[in-house]
């Protein structure tokens, strides 16, 4: 007897990515772009991780809701994610806040960002909705989460991280029973509840939710009719289902994608300059916690047509070199030294300069004799000759954005003010 083939649930699902957030804790990095559009890892953007997870999981219908300073994000999506074909039952919709429900109403919350596009979603006729945050770095197979959602008969399945209990105070925390059914949802608790099998660990929400589409649409319409609602998944939709339906926690460890070189489940919220710098610099380790070289789970992005990186000059004191560093295409390291640095596309680093633990975004220019340590340099910045950063914190704090951990964020406006 022939075994019946199980159809992947992902092929009947739509991934809906919430990418409208500003990310104000990233300071000047989000002055001209939304947090999901911030560069990461040498050639990708933050949003590419959620989108790649969806694509690699087998999901072929994707919507992206945008709002805050969305031009950079929309341009990236149009260039890098335009390969979906309707004739293959694929779709990729960019959904800016466009006052489709009301002439005065933008997206009021995460749930409202879905509610305002109900007609578009229902037109596709998908059975499942996978709601995703577009601003985290991780690799995850959503098919596993979809399968658990069906097997448990849940109304909503919530993706959760296992974190040390007292480190969960800044998250929405799921209080669960022995079967991981959510019995209460607590936003940023002072004393987070532990989980039954590991009382020293709490389950923190990842902002990932799975619903059957019909149920979600009913919940969104109900919530929209409630005066005083925040129109938010974490504040309104999920707590209502916990109290009146069946909500189940899905542990990230069950569906985290790891290569042979990754020993731990990797998830990062790169929402501060320090966290952003650290996550990028960590990629320069010999065996980093996040494997970007995993061919079985590639991170898709806009692949620019650029020449290879180039290292020139080979004389004492003027030798183009990079140690424990990632250097993207179209970079020219001309008689300069890089150590434990990550250099994005199109950078020019000139002779006698030294970069140590530097994150340099695309199209930057570093003049001769510059010494830059523990820096994040925004796109297109022109570093003047002889600039020294990272050796005198008092001087750095007066000129640039200096973080608690001593990382300097440098923008072109800050450089321009040096001459005034």
How is the topology of this model organized?
Blueprint: E1 13-18, E2 39-40, E3 44-45, H1 47-57, E4 61-66, H2 71-80, E5 91-96, H3 110-115, H4 118-124, E6 128-133, E7 137-138, H5 142-152, E8 156-164, E9 172-176, E10 182-187, E11 201-212, H6 213-224, H7 233-244, E12 247-251, E13 267-268, H8 273-282, E14 310-312, E15 314-315, E16 318-319, E17 321-323, E18 326-327, E19 332-334, E20 337-339, E21 342-343, E22 348-349, E23 354-360, E24 365-366, E25 371-377, E26 382-383, E27 388-389, H9 393-399, E28 401-402, E29 408-410, H10 412-417
Parallel strand pairs: 1-4, 1-6, 4-5, 8-12, 14-19, 17-20, 18-21, 19-22, 20-23, 21-23, 22-24, 23-25, 24-26, 25-27, 25-29
Antiparallel strand pairs: 2-3, 6-11, 7-13, 8-11, 9-10, 9-11, 15-16, 28-29
């Amino acid at each position: 007897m022939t075994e019946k083939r199980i159809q992947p649930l992902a092929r009947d699902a739509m991934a809906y990515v919430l990418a409208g957030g500003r990310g104000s804790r990233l300071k000047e990095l989000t002055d001209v772009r939304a947090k999901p559009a911030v560069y990461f890892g040498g050639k990708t953007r933050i949003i590419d991780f959620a989108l790649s997870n969806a694509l690699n999981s087998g999901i072929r219908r994707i919507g992206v809701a945008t709002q805050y300073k969305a031009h950079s994000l929309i341009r990236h999506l149009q260039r890098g994610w335009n390969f979906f074909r309707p004739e293959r039952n694929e779709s990729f919709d960019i959904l800016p806040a466009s006052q489709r429900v009301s002439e005065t109403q933008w997206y009021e919350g995460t749930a409202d960002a879905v509610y305002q596009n109900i007609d578009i979603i229902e037109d596709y006729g998908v059975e499942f909705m996978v709601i995703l945050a577009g601003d985290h770095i991780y690799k995850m197979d959503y098919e596993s989460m979809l399968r658990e959602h069906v097997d448990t008969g849940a109304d909503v399945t919530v993706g959760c991280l296992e974190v040390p209990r007292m480190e969960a105070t800044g998250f929405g925390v799921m209080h669960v029973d022995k079967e991981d059914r959510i019995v209460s949802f607590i936003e940023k608790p002072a004393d987070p509840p532990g989980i039954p099998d590991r009382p020293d660990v709490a389950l923190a929400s990842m902002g990932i939710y799975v619903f059957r589409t019909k149920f979600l649409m009913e919940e969104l319409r109900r919530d929209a009719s409630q005066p005083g609602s925040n129109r938010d998944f974490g504040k309104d939709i999920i707590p209502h289902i916990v109290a009146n339906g069946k909500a189940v926690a899905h542990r990230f460890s069950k569906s985290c994608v790891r290569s042979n070189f990754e020993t731990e489940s990797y998830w990062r919220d790169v929402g501060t300059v320090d966290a952003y710098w650290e996550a990028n610099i960590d990629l320069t380790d010999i065996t980093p916690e996040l494997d970007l070289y995993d061919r079985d789970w590639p991170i898709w992005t806009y692949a620019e047509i650029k020449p290879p990186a180039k290292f020139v000059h080979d004389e004492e004191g003027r030798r183009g070199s990079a140690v424990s560093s990632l250097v993207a295409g179209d970079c020219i390291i001309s008689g300069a030294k890089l150590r434990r640095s990550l250099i994005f596309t199109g950078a020019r680093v000139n002779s006698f300069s030294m970069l140590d633990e530097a994150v340099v975004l695309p199209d930057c220019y570093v003049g001769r004799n510059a010494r830059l340590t523990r820096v994040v340099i925004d796109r297109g910045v022109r570093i003047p000759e002889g600039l020294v950063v990272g050796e005198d914190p008092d001087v750095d704090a007066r000129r640039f954005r200096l973080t608690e951990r001593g990382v300097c964020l440098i923008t072109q406006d800050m450089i321009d003010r040096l001459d005034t």
